[in-house]
């Protein structure tokens, strides 16, 4: 079996996300399980654009994991989401 | 905005043990006719008494040089006004006045008046320039010595420097390392090597270097006040700050064109704006996760742009730090620090402000700091102009 591809994770660092919890997510080195962290490739992104969708039920901060965008992410939710994503 | 910039700064070390200087430096800019007047005066003695004499002299010389009055008449008034020293029974202070006016032809006209200070030095690049000085004998009633004013009219092209200093500089090291002190030739040679080693050295750094050298010749215990002033005529360093997306999409292309055409440093402040610029310039945007703080989102990197930051939060923190004159070295390494460093290294800052409203910022649950972009730019410009004496301009798109 070949080496498993890392999960691509983008944390939004746009203004709206950053002030509503995004700053906490940037501390991922501190709260994520090292095993999970090893399976991810985490980067920042200027704006995912989720905050501009008035119809959306989700709220900032937004995180993109693979192809999916998740809203209202906090540290706990990010741990859960990444644990699932790296297991899959 | 002007295509010419006159960089003036000075450095000073007081005589050892003194808390106040007998050398006084004054600088005024009159933006209406692009005139700059700088005055350096050295009062008799040291400490408070010398400071009073020098302050009086410098202030009078300064004010009078803005008036149309004849120069020799002004000098007489100054000398007649100075109080008499109790011990020495004479009234005395030296002065040098440099009156600089920008000419349309990329040059600066200088009217230099010297009285008893060491002769000023002029450099074109790193070569010392000699010029003719007209000597005017004052022949004042009550003079205790021959009073001769040196008057010269010079034209300073781009790349020239004027260096003025008090006798604390030329006499540094006297009787110690050097029998007669550093002397004019020593200062000239030192300044030449400094400029040669660093052709773009700022007035601040050059003045500082000369003063520090004089201080070390005096074995770090100055025998007199050491003051040096430098004027540097050069092209302005320009910076462009782009913040906010244009009001309509059709203007995006125009914005990017303006960025491409701009000569100088470029800052893009705003996530969406950065994405527009990145898309149209076809350069990828990469968030630099190594530089952020809980208050300020991280910077990004993009080829062709010197600094890419988040918008409103960063700008608001920059405006506050500039207004409070926070020293850069005490700041954490984040986007605000980088932004301020670029601002301080610029002479002219041009803002292009996008007027599109960000729907995401209208949410009442996000902090009040995220106000109205135009107000924020107004604060920034005011701080840059009032506190840091930068030239600023702006346009909306």
Automatic annotation (TrEMBL), chain A:
Pfam family, one: 2Fe-2S_thioredx
UniProt xrefs under SUPFAM superfamilies: Thioredoxin-like (SSF52833)
Protein's recorded name: Uncharacterized protein
Lineage of origin: unclassified sequences, metagenomes, ecological metagenomes
């Amino acid at each position: 079996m070949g080496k498993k591809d890392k999960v691509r994770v983008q944390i939004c660092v746009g203004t709206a996300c950053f002030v509503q919890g995004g700053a906490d997510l940037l501390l991922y080195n501190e709260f994520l399980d090292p095993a999970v962290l090893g399976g991810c490739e985490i980067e920042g992104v200027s704006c995912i654009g989720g905050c501009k969708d008035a119809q959306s039920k989700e709220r900032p901060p937004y995180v993109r994991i693979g192809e999916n965008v998740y809203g209202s992410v906090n540290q706990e939710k990010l741990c859960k989401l990444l644990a699932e994503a790296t297991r899959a | 905005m002007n295509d010419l910039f006159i960089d003036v700064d000075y450095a000073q070390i007081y005589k050892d043990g003194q808390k106040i200087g007998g050398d006084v430096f004054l600088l005024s800019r009159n933006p209406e006719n692009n005139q700059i007047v700088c005055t350096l005066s050295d009062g008799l003695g040291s400490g408070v008494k010398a400071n009073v004499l020098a302050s009086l002299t410098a202030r009078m010389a300064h004010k009078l040089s803005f008036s149309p009055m004849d120069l020799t008449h002004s000098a007489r008034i100054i000398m007649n006004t100075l109080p008499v020293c109790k011990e020495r029974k004479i009234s005395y202070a030296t002065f040098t006045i440099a009156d600089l006016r920008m000419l349309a032809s990329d040059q600066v006209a200088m009217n230099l008046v010297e009285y008893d200070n060491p002769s000023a030095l002029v450099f074109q690049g790193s070569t010392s320039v000699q010029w003719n000085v007209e000597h005017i004998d004052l022949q004042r009633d009550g003079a205790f010595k021959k009073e001769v004013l040196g008057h010269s009219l010079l034209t300073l092209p781009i790349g020239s420097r004027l260096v003025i200093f008090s006798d604390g500089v030329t006499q540094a090291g006297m009787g110690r390392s050097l029998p007669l002190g550093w002397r004019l030739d020593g200062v000239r040679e030192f300044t030449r090597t400094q400029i040669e080693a660093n052709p773009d050295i700022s007035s601040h750094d050059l003045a500082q270097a000369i003063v520090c050298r004089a201080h070390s010749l005096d074995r770090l215990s100055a025998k007199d006040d050491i003051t040096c002033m430098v004027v540097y005529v050069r092209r302005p360093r320009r910076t462009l700050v782009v913040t906010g997306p244009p009001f309509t999409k059709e203007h995006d292309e125009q914005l990017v064109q303006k960025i491409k055409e701009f000569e100088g440093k470029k800052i893009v402040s705003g996530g969406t704006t950065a994405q527009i610029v990145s898309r149209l310039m076809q350069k990828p945007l990469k968030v630099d996760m190594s530089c952020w703080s809980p208050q300020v989102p991280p910077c990004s990197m993009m080829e062709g742009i010197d600094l890419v930051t988040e918008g409103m939060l960063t700008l608001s923190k920059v405006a506050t730090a500039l207004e409070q004159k926070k020293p850069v070295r005490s700041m954490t390494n984040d986007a605000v620090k980088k932004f301020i460093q670029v601002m301080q290294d610029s002479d002219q800052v041009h803002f292009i402000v996008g007027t599109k409203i960000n729907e995401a910022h209208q949410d009442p649950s996000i902090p009040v700091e995220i106000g109205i972009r135009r107000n924020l730019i107004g604060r920034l410009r005011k701080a840059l102009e009032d506190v840091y004496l930068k030239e600023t301009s702006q346009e909306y798109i």
